[in-house]
From TrEMBL:
Residues 1-30 form the signal peptide. It is an enzyme of class 3 (hydrolase). Residues 42-239 form the Peptidase M48 domain. Its EC number is 3.4.24.-. One of its GO terms (molecular function) is metallopeptidase activity. This is M48 family metalloprotease. It holds the Pfam family Peptidase_M48. The keyword Signal applies. The keyword Heme does not apply. InterPro entries: Mito/Outer_Membr_Metalloprot, Peptidase_M48, TPR-like_helical_dom_sf, TPR_rpt. TPR repeats lie at residues 321-354. Keywords: Hydrolase, Metal-binding, Metalloprotease, Protease, Signal, TPR repeat, Zinc.
Length: 457
């Protein structure tokens, strides 16, 4: 079992406070300058977690299209629900040695969601002042500037996460009741049973928390002051989980590989080669640690070596979309925009999730070349990506650059406004929206989009 599985939320007090202050798309009335969750966007990891959650949501009678899963860039082992959203720390994936452990956590959170355990918070949440999630990208285009500079600090700053200072709101605003936790545990076991998956991971997560002496009231922790003692839950889980006919079922090899590749990426972006080695120990020659090492090499400012390493990965697994995506990031950071666009195009062809993040990256790479002849294609690719990922603030900014190179000032200002809007910088968004609106005929779609930003309060 891993050393410390810290802060597994399961309805933690601060997570509930965040529920009153977090929405994934920026709502009217949201204000900048407030506390923000460090949310991360990555096509590969999001696809993995959606695949973990889909059968569980179906087993719970919930529509996957109506439940949003958001990755929080925090290395603590943590997950919580807010409204129709499930928030999962990247640390949960990193510290879970098997997919089944992460799946168990997701099953528990779906238990809270299906049980309507936050219904009593609705009025408070509606009255609470919301904040914007500032979303970064582990994927295309964000790490490029830092990698190109050769600065480890700069690469880290551009490594897929935009964070803000401060903790998550005030402590102790809400608390789950003991019965809700027990109900969520039971529900998780039911969903795992219905989907033919082992409850071992769920049990091991709680056993790890008990070993860390968390949730017991012995240690004072800002997240854990209202949870039932772990021995109460573990006693039930040990009996119920071991009674499952699926208890000894292991994850398929293909799922384990995808899980390890995600862990390697998280380790590389958060702790470089050192955390990759720490995560995988002596096993440094298999695909996952090599993947992490290639990304870490890229972020440290060694594009030639990184490209050589990722090409080795592609030779070993030529149909892995995300190896081609990383190749595109390396080339983009090296100023090789046409080659980067080709790599992203190949990634988009192979991507089973059809992620708008990767699709937009094709256009973003073309924009960096600043060739006016290529801007129409860049605009088309970015807009195509934004159709499925409208909250991609970085893509809006690259779209503004493409319009600027093309000489379309009004469209550039409107895209800039929308980029600021989705990044939570609402004052800046309104300034650029006002500039853009003056360049469009009243009543047109562009004029109305600008007006929507201007009129929100």
């Amino acid at each position: 079992m891993k050393p410390v599985l810290a802060r597994l939320a399961h309805g933690l007090v601060a997570a509930l406070t965040a529920a009153a202050t977090v929405l994934s798309s920026v709502p009217a009335g949201a204000q900048s300058g407030r506390e923000r969750l460090p949310v991360v966007r990555d096509a590969e990891i999001e696809a993995l977690i959606r695949d973990y959650a889909a059968p569980l949501l179906q087993a719970a009678g919930l529509s996957a299209s109506r439940v949003e899963i958001i990755l929080v860039n925090d290395l603590n082992f943590n997950a919580f629900v807010a409204g129709r959203r499930i928030f999962i720390n990247t640390g949960t994936i990193l510290q879970s040695e098997t997919p089944n452990e992460t799946i168990g956590v997701i099953a528990h959170e779906i238990g809270h969601l299906a049980g309507g355990h936050q219904e009593r918070l609705r009025d408070q949440i509606a009255r609470a002042q919301t904040i914007a999630i500032v979303a970064g990208l582990l994927g295309a285009g964000v790490a490029a500037a830092g990698a190109a500079s050769g600065s480890g600090a700069a690469a880290s700053a551009g490594a897929g996460v935009m964070t803000s200072g401060g903790g998550i709101a005030q402590r102790g605003l809400f608390a789950y009741q003991r019965s809700e936790e027990t109900t969520a545990d039971r529900s998780a076991l039911t969903y795992l049973e219905r989907t033919g998956q082992s409850p071992r991971g769920l049990l091991e997560s709680f056993e790890g928390l008990a070993r860390s002496n968390l949730l017991s009231g012995v240690r004072s922790d800002r997240y854990l002051t209202s949870h039932p003692a772990p021995q109460d839950r573990i006693g039930f889980l040990q009996t119920a989980a071991r009674a499952s006919p699926h208890f000894d079922r292991k994850d398929p090899a293909e799922r384990q590989l995808r899980h390890d590749l995600a862990r390697a990426k998280i380790a590389a972006y958060n702790g470089g080669a050192g955390l990759v080695r720490q995560t995988f120990g002596r096993d440094l020659q298999s695909l996952a640690p090599r993947y992490g090492d290639a990304i870490a090499t890229h972020l440290s400012g060694s594009p030639a070596q990184a490209l050589q390493k990722v090409d080795g990965l592609i030779a070993a697994a030529p149909r892995n979309a995300y190896f081609h995506e990383v190749r595109g990031e390396i080339l983009m950071g090296s100023g090789r925009s046409a080659e980067a666009a080709a790599a992203f195009s190949r990634a988009a062809e192979l991507d089973p999730s059809n992620s708008g993040i990767i699709r937009a990256a094709i256009g973003q790479a073309l924009v960096t070349g600043r060739d006016p002849a290529k801007m129409p294609e860049a605009i088309a690719q970015i807009r195509r990506g934004l159709q499925s990922e409208p909250n991609n603030a970085m893509a809006h900014r690259f779209l503004a650059m493409a319009y600027g190179v093309s000489g379309n000032v009004g469209a550039a200002e409107l895209a800039t406004a929308e980029g600021y809007w989705h990044a939570g910088r609402f004052r800046d968004a309104k300034v650029f929206a006002a500039r853009a609106q003056g360049k469009f005929r009243p009543g047109t779609a562009e004029w109305q989009r600008a007006d929507d930003i201007i009129q929100t309060r």
